[in-house]
């Protein structure tokens, strides 16, 4: 049977039957009456979150990121920052653990040092937030008239503060109104949100730089989220002192998130292959596909993580390694925040979500009273198989990644001698070896899943169109929902 035609092939055929097309949004006027034979048929092949009138591919990308301040002890400046912003009342978000630690103490002292700067603290953020925990945080925020927000904690805290901010402005909206389609309505955010300052206490999510916020839809046993540039903090305060108290297990899981943010954004389909082209710039998604700017940040973050994460795993007091990983987390955030992630993250959402009802795995080193596969670990479980699958889409990019894992240059004979067709197999082994060195469970079986669970994990991945549509060999193949490929990747990730 002939292989499925790729979108690029179909577009070339369509374009061959047309007059030359102008790439501007305004080319649909009477004076730009280009024929688009076959377009209606193509539009029926897939449903997309962004409504457009044609199947034209994207022709532009945008770069958006928070302002960043990096240095030891910079948390103590946050009170002055909020005063400079003329904050009237600040909503401070943290979790029960960070609430007792030095980063929160320093932040509160900074707020208290400013005259006439009232604030309220919400310290009940749940690690790995759920729909219920978000609704509680939103309800609390809506009771107050906050002019500004401050988040002190890991990605769960920052994401929760983003959401509380959003629904403080949209007082009558329901949570699912802005959740990514098709799980939610995926409505655009047109109103200006309140200023949010994020102070990360883990080196992982990069949430201080992005407009993404992730939560667990427990009723459907998978994760999803809201992704919109409007959510990004106005300032990320990246204080190298703030990860000092972070347990080793949390360092490793957070670092794995950095690793796969970098790899996935660098290997996502090019932004010029993403469809549909938005009919209005406000509809251009935050996750756009790989692009020249995101590539620089992602590759730097990848190299830095491969070098320094193993050092933290051996000695969490390694100050240089902790500092570099914080910077890598922010760099990877800028990379994936503008390019997007794909399969590892898409599959991680049901892996962690179904755990609460299924295996009930509780990762060693996490002080929580509920089952948890930490986000970074859930992402890493499918890593080797994912990049073996995606390698044929861009052998050169995967070859670069292989060189980084192997600690050599891309021109080293050990890399250049590998045929394109074998790059994926080599990368599989290098990623698996790297994860072994960090003590990551070897596949889905190691966290309690059975072979019979694979179909449920695939079903939980399929709604993650926001990221699947950026996956090579899925997002750029017309009519491909990915079910068959996802099943094979999950099977290959069961045990290795």
Observed structural traits:
single chain, 496 residues, alpha/beta, six-stranded parallel sheet, two-stranded antiparallel sheet, 18 helices, globular
Task: Please summarize what this structure is.
The chain is built from 18 helices and eight strands. The chain has 496 residues and is of the alpha/beta class.
Topology:
Blueprint: H1 7-16, H2 39-43, E1 67-71, H3 78-84, E2 90-93, H4 102-112, E3 119-122, H5 131-142, E4 148-153, H6 155-169, E5 196-200, E6 212-217, E7 222-227, E8 235-239, H7 248-267, H8 292-314, H9 319-339, H10 343-355, H11 375-380, H12 383-390, H13 395-406, H14 413-416, H15 423-437, H16 454-461, H17 465-468, H18 483-492
Parallel strand pairs: 1-8, 2-3, 2-4, 4-5, 5-8
Antiparallel strand pairs: 6-7
Helix pairs in contact: 3-4, 5-6, 7-8, 7-9, 8-9, 10-16, 12-15, 13-15, 16-18
